[in-house]
Fold:
Amino acid sequence: MTTLFISDLHLDAGLPEISKQLLIFLKDEAASADALYILGDLFESWVGDDDPNPHYATVKNALRKLVGRRVPVYFMHGNRDFAIGEKFAQETGVQILPDPHVVELYGESVLLSHGDRYCTDDVQYQTIRKMTRDPKWLAMMLKKPLRERLAFAAQARAASAAHGGAINQKIANVNQRAIERAMREANVDTMLHGHTHRPGIHRFNLDGEPASRIVLGDWFTQGSVVRWDESGPVLSVLQR
Ligand code: MN
Structure:
């Protein structure tokens, strides 16, 4: 049996081929998995669980169905969909995890994160992150009428498109020292994250011991998945 990890799908009604690939993945491969972990940025934007967007409804139904087939599905917030809340969890049966979070995978402790919290070189981003992840700020935003939140999100998307679009958006990489600090604190020698859209496996020494950091890729032109079983993790491309 295998545990699956995905992140950074950036689902958006304007890019239906991504959700099409996800729906096939959920119905086929994920249906026979031990568990599925979604490590953030499942959605390009999320203005609140009360958004009746039919594109989101289709994805929520597919997740519900997978949970109904007794495959546990875990979700960690990304910097795009940090507003996903309790109602989403109830509707889908998906369990929301804190970031970071340690899991035991076939005898190995692994630190999971979306990854943006370790991009500490981007000071401006971390300031925005601190503000938007403050529960008080989020509660204040979610109290605004849906129409207002949607207009705000559309405006943010237009501004992002004007700067080359979400796909070409330059994302800072993680800071190695921040990664090592987090791994030390969590007492692990393996970590797995997304966010940077730089898929790969990085091996290094952590206090004299071999350590590794696995990075999931985004789903803009193809899918990206980590399949983890008794023999360890394998990072693969999912062709469309
Ligand atoms: Mn991200």
Notes: The longest strand covers residues 200-206.
